[in-house]
Amino acid sequence: MDRLLLLTLLITTTLPLSTSLPSFPQCFSKIYAFGDSYTDTGNAIPPRRPYGETFFQRPANRYSDGRLMLDFVAQSLGLPFVPAYLNNSADFKNGVNFAVAGSTALDSDFYSSRNLSISFLSPQSLQNQWNWFSQFLQAQCRGAHAKDGCIDDSILFWVGEIGANDYAYTAGTSVLPGTVRELAILNVARLVEGLIKKGAKYLVVQGLPSIGCLPLSMVLMSSTKDDIGCSAFADRQSQLHNSLLQTKLEELRQHYPNTVIIYADFSGAHRTIMQNPQAYGFTEPFKACCGVGGPYNFDLIATCWTDNVSPVTWQRASACPNPEKYVNWDGVHMTDALYRVVADLILNHGYSRPPFPELFSSKGCVN
Ligand SMILES: *[C@@H]1O[C@H](CO)[C@@H](O)[C@H](O)[C@H]1NC(C)=O
Ligand SMILES: *[C@@H]1O[C@H](CO)[C@@H](O)[C@H](O)[C@H]1NC(C)=O
């Protein structure tokens, strides 16, 4: 079984909302990012083709057919795509990405002490990303430029979705979702506070997607569906998680009133799209674009990221010809098209709290 099996988890021509993403060039000069495969731009082993084909026309070290949410954010800020920390040949002058596919919000020790450290489990937790960040600062801030850890107002901190892997890794074990929720949010809050103490002034924290709408959840636990046809149990975990996360972020805002902390409502945007997919240009809300067999074009054994043959159809996963019509890319991760609409909803259409433009106005940037 591939380790990615347990990973978690905008269309220019027909877009009914704004026709382009907002553009705030020169507001921030760097993005420092954290997260899992929803945000990773190359720290984890890149999947083979057809990953990256839609936008990049080549494998682009992302778990999507094209760009991720973070890529659209970078484009809106007039910045280059954020390079992966582990890429030795990358130029970090406009930012660095510590997000790594498979990453957990809970510490690695949590899993190893419960014998849940399955061999294919990525060892990278949010704690590891913090360690990478600390090493990065030490290396960058050596010598004459060293002051206050080299963090200034020109940096946007992006804490991408994290925690979905924890729910996936503990599903069916004695670890309860409530435990995962408490510990995951504690660690996210710890990261945010750690960043603030290092000098971060502008942060965006992304909530979980609606994990019940992923083909993975639909295959494993769709016995009870919610009002939009997604797995009710899994979606409830997303909602509970995101609401506790927002409570924690509000506490941090009270504690650090000079810091701007934006909550990016990924699941709100995701659900809005799932409620009315056609309005956003999607004809396939539930099927994975890249996969094989079954009602969701998703087979746990023959996934897009493996070369395995399905024991049911005797075929390998392959990509659909029109990924721009699909919400989901490979059963677990989203398409370039979905990330584009979600980015637009979050940046432009109120799917963030406080509204995203406050990030720019509080910094004195004008569009
Ligand atoms: C590393 O960065 C270089 C230079 O930007 C880029 O060409 C290459 O694709 C990157 N590799 C990975 C694994 O991200
Ligand atoms: C984990 O596995 C080891 C070795 O099999 C065993 O000794 C230990 O009791 C297990 N721990 C738990 C918490 O199950």
UniProtKB/TrEMBL annotation:
The UniProt record lists the keyword NAD: no
CDD domains in the record: SGNH_plant_lipase_like (cd01837)
A GO molecular function held by the record: hydrolase activity, acting on ester bonds
InterPro entries according to UniProt: GDSL (IPR001087), SGNH_hydro_sf (IPR036514), SGNH_plant_lipase-like (IPR035669)
Record keyword Signal present: yes
Keywords noted in UniProt: Glycoprotein, Hydrolase, Signal
Residues making up the signal peptide according to the UniProt record: 1-20
Family of the protein in this entry: Belongs to the 'GDSL' lipolytic enzyme family.
Name recorded for this polypeptide: Uncharacterized protein
Lineage: Eukaryota, Viridiplantae, Streptophyta, Embryophyta, Tracheophyta
